Each structure stands twice: as C-alpha cells, then as structure tokens.
C-alpha cells in the first residue's frame, strides 16, 4: 500500500526540484550517473562501495562514478531483472539482490557475475516470481525473503554455498526454498522487517498488524493482534529480542513495547502518514525519519520519550525530500537517504562541528574584547555579534553623528578603554576616538597633518607603557603617548617602492616591544628597538632569489608556536604561506603543491595544540608547523563558505577560533576537530584503461578475468603499454578532498603525491615486472593501507628469451669466426709489439744475469779448484784413504751442478752456440753408455742398449748430445729400483737425417697431473717417493732447452708405478766418414755424483773391536760411507738404503743400535721407528734419528715414536760416537741390573737405568719368565719351544735376552731352573733328586754341578742363608 501512495505523491513533488540544498547535504541524482531516481534500498559492502537498488538497475557508487548493472538477455550471468527492490550484505560479505519480477540474485564481486534463485509458488506451475521487497539473514546464515504480498521465504543454503559461489547461473535446485504459510496473499501487504530471536522466534510486520513465526522450523504466520481499535496502517517496524524492544510506526505515532509495557510516542505536526521510516545504524542507534526530520536515538532513549520534537532533530532533511525509502550510515559516519523518485541524499555529520552565524553577510575585521564580546566590521562600521540570536547588533550611542559611528579599526587597551580609528566621510578628517569601557565617547584626537588611516588595512598596538602604535598609510608609523596626548611620527617611506595607491598596514606583530613586524602590500617591514630610536629594514620578493619573500602583499603574521624567537609565519596574498628564519633572513615557502588549499592566506591563528589555522579562498586549513602536514576543511564540511575575507579572523578567550567570510561567520573549537581519531580508510582500484580503452572483465582484450578491484596481477602484451589506473577512497565525506599517492615500482623511485587527482597514467612502459602501489586519505592525516597490483608487460616475440637465445647463437657463431680471424691478426701484432717492448728491458736483464753467473762461476770455481786439486794429489799419494775419495767425489758433484746452472743461464740469455763436429754417433753413444754397465750391475738393474751397428757419421755438438744422454740415463737409473730395467734405443733415420733416442725405465713413474711441468726449471715431481731420491730439478729442464737449441723435440710418457719413457728426435746432417776421426767419450761428473754405486752389505769387518752390530739406514750412499768410517773400528756395520730394507734387516739380525735417516723412500724414519718399537723382537733396540728437520715439533714427534736420540745434519763425528756409546752403555747397565736382580724390575729403579726402557721391557721379561716357570718340570723345554711360543726366531730371542739380561736363552732357562730349585731345597719338603727332576734336570750329576757353579755349594749342603738367592 505504501508504494501505491508513493506514486500518487510524485506530481506534488515536482514543485520542489529547484529548491536549494540545506547545509551538509549533497544530492546524487540521474544527472550524476544514478540509473533511476526511485531508490528502494541502500547498502555498503566490506570493500566500502555503496550499492543502490533502483527501479532501473543496480548501482555501485565509488564516490565519483555510478556503475550500473542491468539485465542482459544474452548473458546468463547478468542481473535477472532491472527492477531491483531489496539488498542484503550477508555475514560473509556477499551481496544479495532482490528483484520485482525475476527472483533473487547473488553477486560475485570477483568476476562480476550474478547467480539466480527463483522465488515461486511451487504449487502453481504457471506462477511467476514473487515481488521481493525485503532481504534478511537469520543467525544460522539462512536468507529470508520478504515479498509484496506478505509471504516470507526461507532460503537454506548447502554447506558448499555458505560462503562461496555456485558454478552455474541458476542454482535454484541447489538450495531449499521454504515458503511460510500465509492465510491470504494480499497485494501491497509488504513484509516491512524481520527480527530473529535466539530461541527460534521471529517477527515481521505487514500493513494490517504484526506477525510472529518460528524461523528455525517455519510453519505459518501468527497475528499478534498488537494494534487494537481502529486498524492503522503499519508503515515500519523494529524489534530487539535481546533487550525486548518493539517499535511500530503507524503514521503520526510510534507504538512501542518494552518488558510488557506499551507506550505511544508522537511526532510533531501532522504531515504525511506514509513517510515514517525506521532504520538501524551501527546496531546501537535507530534512525527515524518523518516530516523532513531525522532523529537518532538508542532504543532505550527513544522508549522513554513521549514525543519527538524539533529540538531533538539530529538533522533536517532537504525540503525536496517527501518520501524516504531507506536510511544508511556508512563506515565513515555519513548518512545516506534514499528517496522515492529523487535519487540519493548524503549528509555529512561533520558540519555540526562548525557553527555558522550571520549567513548572507560578508564580514570584514573581527575583534574580541576582554569581556568576550565579538565585533565584526560590515562595510564601514562594526557591529556586535549576538551568536545565540544569530544577528549583528549596534553597540554605540545612537545619538552620535552618523560620521562618528563608523570605524575602520578598533582595540581595547589594558584599562578597558576602546580606541577606534575613524575617518569622517563628510570632512575626510582622520581621527583617533577614545571610548570608555561602556562605549561612551570620551575624546577625539586628530591625526598629524598628512597622515591617514588605511581604508582596509589598519592596525593598532598597545605597548607595555600604554602607548598606542598605529600603522598608518604610505610608510608612516605613529606613536600616541596617552600621557601627553601627542603623536610621534616615524617614517619608512624610503623603503617603499613608488606606487600609485596607498600602502596600508595589514598586519602588526610585536616581540616584547623590542622588534615590530609590519605587513604591507609592498613587503615585510622590520622595526628594531622602536621605543628608543627605531631602525627600519624591509623584506620583499626578489625574482633572482628563491629564498626571498614569495609575495610582497602581506595579509597576516604569527610567531611560530614551537620556536617563536626563531621563526615568523607570513600569510600572503598570492604567494601562499612563508616561514621567515629570523637568524638567516631566508624564507621557506609552503604552497599549494605542499598541501595548502589556496595561495591566498587571509588569517593565521594558533590553537592550544600549537597548530596554525589558515583562512583562504578555498576553505580553512589546519597546518602543523613541525610536520608541515595539512588538514583542509571546506564548505562541504560545514563552513560558511569556501571563501573568507581579509582581516576577518580572531580568537576568543574560550579558545574558539572565528573566521569571517563572504557568507557569515564560522566559529569552532579546534579541540573538537583535532582530537578526532579516524579509522583507516579503504581504497580500491576501480578502473583500468589500456591504450585509452576501458577494460572490463571478460571483454575481447582478455586482460581482466575478474573485476579490477579483485585483480592482483596484470599480464599485458608489449603494445598494451599505455595504462591509466583509476582509484577511489571509500570515504564519501567530501570526495573532492580525498587525497592520493601512488608509485609504480620499477618506474617511480618515490611516492607520487597526486593530491586529489585519482588517476595514474603511464605511457610507453617497457617490458618488465612492475608493482603498482596506491594509498589514499580523506583528511591527509590517516592513510589507507597500500593496495598492490602486479603488472607484467611481456616483450614482443623478437625480444623474448628464446629469441635472444637464437640471436646469441647466431652472434656467437659469427663472432667466433670473426674473432678467430681477428685474433690471429692481433696476436701477430701484439707479439711483435710485445717483443719490441720487452726487448730493451730483457736485454739489460740478460746482460746482468750473464755477468752475474759469469762472476759467480768464477767465484765458485776458484775455491773448488783449490779444494779439488790438493784432494786429487792427496788421494793419489794415499789411495787407500776412503774419506779422500768421498770428498773429491762430492766436490766434483758440486762442480757439475754449477756447470748445469751456467748452461741454463747461457740458454736463457741466448748465448749458447751450437758447435758441430763430425762424429760417429754410433761409436760415441756406445762408448758413453758403456760407463753405465757397471752402475747397472751395482744397483741390480738390467740395462739394455739397442743401436745401429754400423758407423754413422754426422755433424753434431758432442757436448750437448752427451749432456742430453747422461741426464736422461741418470734420471732413469735414479728412479728404477733393484730388479728393474733401463732400456736405451738409438736409431738413425737417413731418409730425414734424424737421430731418434729413446730412454725407458720400469721405475716409479710420474703422476699424469705432473707430466706438463716435468720440464720446468727446478720442478721436482711429487713430495713422496720421487722427492726422497733427491735432485735439483735442473736436469730435465736442461735436456729440453738443449734439445730446443739443437732444433729437436723431446717428449715423455709415463704410467705411475710402471715406468717412464723419454723420446728425443734430433736433426743431424750427415758427414762423410773418416777412420781417422777419434771417438772421444767423457763420463760426466754429474753422472758419477748423482748415481752412487750399489750399497755394500758388510756384516763383518776386520778389525772391529766388539761384536756389537750397528745398522746404518740412509738413502745417501755417501752418508752411509761416512758413518761406516766413523764406527768401523768399534762395531760390526750393516747398511740399508731405505726404511723398508732397514726394517727387514733389523728384524732379521736384531742389531744393538740403529742409526736412521728421517727422509727416505718407501718408508721414512718415523714409520721405521714406529714399527721397530712395536715389534717384540726389536722394541729394545735403541734408535738414533738423523735428519735435516730441526724443529721442536719434529723432535717431539720422533721421541714420541720411540727414538732414543735425535741429531740434525750436519753433525759432528765425535758427538755421534759419544751418543751411540752412551746408548750401548745404557743397554749394558740394563743387562747388569737384570743379572744382579733376577725377575722383573720394579717400575722405579736407580739411575742410570732408564725408567721408560724398564717399563717397556718388563712385560716381555714377565712373559718369558712365566713361560719358563709354566714348563719348569719339562726337561725337553728348550730354546726352540720358548721362541716359538713368543713368536720369535731363536736368533731374535737370543739377541734380545742377551741385550736385556746379558744371558743367552739357554743360560736364562738354566738359571731360572736353578733359582727355583734353591727355593724348593730351602723349603726342605723334597730330596735333592726330587728337586732336580721337579725343575727339569734329567741328570742329577749335571744338576749338582750346575748348582755348585751358581751357588758355590752342593745342593745337599745348601742352607738357604745366602743373600743372593731370590
């Protein structure tokens, strides 16, 4: 019924279309993009969008644009009907839309699709959809549908659709649609509201009454019959089950119930009975609209009232609104009103924070006196403002002449008197009026001749002495002495630029009377020590100095609230706001680009929070002088207007700020605005254009699969690189002031301060990855969380990775070809250039090295000559002296090494010349190699030599050829072990005149990784076995360079552990044969020195003073020879040339002492000592270690492994004799101790027996004694059995026991038996014969003789009193 009345009222509504809007209201109609003026419902979703259901489509509003959704017959996912009549945002944030003829819709905001449910009467096959007028959600999440005939429907969603969306457009078959039974379906009997109780009870209203039903198990509606008597029409209903409130509107009254109490609340006046609407704001307040008024109450406050009055009105509705269909409070606190035919109305509650009076009047100067009275100048005179009455009243005696009732400026002095600047409009006389505190005119003071008040700009200041300072026109500053009633004129005309108009004073600020600041339209004047002798200076704009005053027209001045002694703020007319640094005299500009709403700043006032409030031509701005942040207010926020006036600003004693403008006076308290805390606004990207074409989800461009506000990533082609993004802050308070900042990471380094511009444009974006970030604010203080959108611009096909890969392959192929050609040419050029560059430098170095080696060779050769000559003579005189031969041998070895170094030097300097002579190469090589036969025999190496048998005469350099062969052969013999093979092949190739030399061995070989370096100078392969053979690393380097000089080649092949082969090819031109040419072969000294003869194993030597065996282990034959010569007269000498061989001999022979080198092949000294000391047979043998390693760590390691002594090379012969003698003597003392103390020794014994030695050998002796004791009665137990049980050979056992005890094995067993027999005889339990047999003697006579030899008495006479019996 209500909707019928709405259509009847439409013709009467047309008369109000041209009426202006009231303060705080904004209208949104068809002209703003709304699809239709008939608004049925309004909702705001979670993202902040406003949704409006109209008779012609569904509208989504973002603050700037309406996006209209309508039915598309060719799109099954479009809205089912254009006439949208109800909206619901459920708990999951989904939007439901009810239509008048085509059922219910569910909107998916991710892709812009609508899904449909048919609301039909299943009992009638031909029935259409119900007209939906109401949507609601019960506590279980079920959707309730109210219809135009009063029948409710319950939509039960399956679990899969409780928060998601269906897959097909029509999902009626996926839900259960339950119709609540209704006796009669009457047209226009609308369900007005649903309310659901926790116990399952629900309530709804229809035009005739209020009904209840069970929402959990709906069966039918039950009339509560709450409305008695005449049946009024129910217009709207509200029910609160939790607090038990029920309100029913019935025309001009509200019928209410609470806890069983019924009450009627009446509306003011009569009005239209159909325009009452009850809506719920934020779950706590009810919004009641009626008769052009809006009331806001909680349910409790509303119930206690008897009537709603005009004084209770929260806001008056615009006059052209005759019927309210819906009221909504959005997330920012704005109130939205839906009308029946005139679109939307939005109310900004912030306007209530500003009080405006004197509407329609343009105000000038403002002044507040000490009593709190406010005065405003309108045209030529002031009036006193009566704020409560909203009017301007006269305050002067009306009997005064009209000319005396005009004022251009006024102040109140400290004594309460008033001083007024007056210009007589008849006589044009300028006078200063003195009024009493009650505004009684006391006296008039004419100004000095030629001095005038400004028409607009007039400022008067009272100093501490009570004198009045008046800023007059054209550079005149007056000082009025109230005591003398005289004027003093101070001039600063000389600072003013020439102009045709008067220069007036618009601002005047004093710093404790020490400095005056005067603002004029020609600049800022500074007056220093004005009370005594004023000095004037001036600041003005300079086009060449950007730190000068921004504009010369000064309208207002204010000291900085934080640093008043340092900064002064200046409001200008056209230059914005300036800050003067008083210390530097420089100005900082705050303009529109930094947030100032307008470049004209009329007034500056400071509040209690130390903010500056600025009046401009575009509203009022709150400015923080510390952070430079602005919060701007305009007419839409409740100001009198956006434009304010010159000198029209003041602050009263209560802290209120007053600003006058073209439409009255605005009064507000800053604390009411500054103290507000706003929630974070929401921002959405609402639009996208690509190449200036709008992009929609699912269009032909294929860019958007869903809506832009739900899109997180954009993929664009290379030619889709002109982008425009549109965004909006979901705060509708004053959308024109919403501010934005954005940045595109990858393009923008910093945030782009867009101000109120809500578009971001990017052109010609190169391909790549970008991130768009956008944030917004409604007030400039609180900013939204950044909204992020990933943007990927793909490259064209010819700039893709696989295209670049193809290009790279092509370029690489072409480049390699070009590089190869160019490299060859450049290498030749660089080689020539390098050689030329290095030639000079190397020539000097070569000459220096040649001189050095020549000199050093002379220095070496001279002492060597003096050494080798006498040695040679001495050796010939004493041929049997072995030491002389060894000394001469090593001297010649040193000479050979010097010769090799000199040869390398000559080769490097290029001074070695090839000197060829005719040589029978076959005979030459045969003679040369014959010298190695005896060497091979001495080392037990098989030496094979294959050659051409016939004489072969060639031109060759005999010296170089000989050095090549001897170095190769020496190297082969050095690294070939006994039993190996060294083979040499020589072949002459007459077809190409080449001599081929091949030297191969079956030695230790060379690791493959070291073969490339084998010919480097001073390089020695390996650090182990090869290193142990010694050498200097010169031989093979000399071979290669000699072969190179002879223009030949040398190569090597080797297998580690199998052997090495060297091949040399030398071009030797043939020479005619001659039997007369002698063949000379010289055995080189280095061959003799590097390859020692095979070691002799001397096990017995004539003249040895004792039978003590000394084993010498060293890989150097000369060292062994020297040591043999040192000890030959005292010991039997045995030799071994490596650790492994020495260990074998020590195990077999059991020497009395071992002298061992540390660095040896196969097994080094540490390894030898470790094994020797852990073997039972050899653990007692003392070891003297010889090494060149003299560090403390090496000595500690040697002693830790059992070495008894340590000597470093070179050593003294006398020292080593003494050390060896001491160790032998120590073992003798040990034997003596064992002989004198039968049985195992104690741990601690007297010196000089070594405790460590005793601890080591005690276990062995205990084991021997135990074995002998356990076989005591066995007469057959002998040396063989004992050694077998000890895992030793009889020889080893004899040598060890002899060393430890001084006894042979037989003696040790016999003495042990005799000691046991003595114990048994002393016990007296056995006879002598029984004792003899008990201790293993088969012959009693032998036992008796042996016993008497040991103890000096016969067994029968033995009493046991002897102390030497154990």
TrEMBL record:
<dbReference type="InterPro" id="IPR009057">
    <property type="entry name" value="Homeodomain-like_sf"/>
</dbReference>
<keyword id="KW-0547">Nucleotide-binding</keyword>
<dbReference type="Pfam" id="PF00072">
    <property type="entry name" value="Response_reg"/>
</dbReference>
<dbReference type="InterPro" id="IPR003594">
    <property type="entry name" value="HATPase_dom"/>
</dbReference>
<dbReference type="InterPro" id="IPR013783">
    <property type="entry name" value="Ig-like_fold"/>
</dbReference>
<feature type="modified residue" description="4-aspartylphosphate">
    <location>
        <position position="1157"/>
    </location>
</feature>
<dbReference type="InterPro" id="IPR003661">
    <property type="entry name" value="HisK_dim/P_dom"/>
</dbReference>
<protein>
    <recommendedName>
        <fullName>histidine kinase</fullName>
        <ecNumber>2.7.13.3</ecNumber>
    </recommendedName>
</protein>
<dbReference type="InterPro" id="IPR036890">
    <property type="entry name" value="HATPase_C_sf"/>
</dbReference>
<feature type="domain" description="Histidine kinase">
    <location>
        <begin position="855"/>
        <end position="1070"/>
    </location>
</feature>
<feature type="domain" description="Response regulatory">
    <location>
        <begin position="1109"/>
        <end position="1224"/>
    </location>
</feature>
<dbReference type="InterPro" id="IPR005467">
    <property type="entry name" value="His_kinase_dom"/>
</dbReference>
<keyword id="KW-0067">ATP-binding</keyword>
<keyword id="KW-0902">Two-component regulatory system</keyword>
<dbReference type="GO" id="GO:0000155">
    <property type="term" value="F:phosphorelay sensor kinase activity"/>
</dbReference>
<dbReference type="InterPro" id="IPR011123">
    <property type="entry name" value="Y_Y_Y"/>
</dbReference>
<dbReference type="InterPro" id="IPR015943">
    <property type="entry name" value="WD40/YVTN_repeat-like_dom_sf"/>
</dbReference>
<dbReference type="InterPro" id="IPR011110">
    <property type="entry name" value="Reg_prop"/>
</dbReference>
<dbReference type="GO" id="GO:0005524">
    <property type="term" value="F:ATP binding"/>
</dbReference>
<keyword id="KW-0597">Phosphoprotein</keyword>
<keyword id="KW-0808">Transferase</keyword>
<dbReference type="InterPro" id="IPR018062">
    <property type="entry name" value="HTH_AraC-typ_CS"/>
</dbReference>
<dbReference type="InterPro" id="IPR001789">
    <property type="entry name" value="Sig_transdc_resp-reg_receiver"/>
</dbReference>
<keyword id="KW-0238">DNA-binding</keyword>
<dbReference type="Pfam" id="PF07494">
    <property type="entry name" value="Reg_prop"/>
</dbReference>
<dbReference type="InterPro" id="IPR011006">
    <property type="entry name" value="CheY-like_superfamily"/>
</dbReference>
<dbReference type="InterPro" id="IPR036097">
    <property type="entry name" value="HisK_dim/P_sf"/>
</dbReference>
<keyword id="KW-0805">Transcription regulation</keyword>
<dbReference type="InterPro" id="IPR004358">
    <property type="entry name" value="Sig_transdc_His_kin-like_C"/>
</dbReference>
<dbReference type="GO" id="GO:0043565">
    <property type="term" value="F:sequence-specific DNA binding"/>
</dbReference>
<dbReference type="Pfam" id="PF00512">
    <property type="entry name" value="HisKA"/>
</dbReference>
<feature type="domain" description="HTH araC/xylS-type">
    <location>
        <begin position="1262"/>
        <end position="1361"/>
    </location>
</feature>
<dbReference type="Pfam" id="PF02518">
    <property type="entry name" value="HATPase_c"/>
</dbReference>
<dbReference type="Pfam" id="PF07495">
    <property type="entry name" value="Y_Y_Y"/>
</dbReference>
<dbReference type="Pfam" id="PF12833">
    <property type="entry name" value="HTH_18"/>
</dbReference>
<keyword id="KW-0418">Kinase</keyword>
<dbReference type="GO" id="GO:0003700">
    <property type="term" value="F:DNA-binding transcription factor activity"/>
</dbReference>
<keyword id="KW-0804">Transcription</keyword>
<dbReference type="InterPro" id="IPR018060">
    <property type="entry name" value="HTH_AraC"/>
</dbReference>
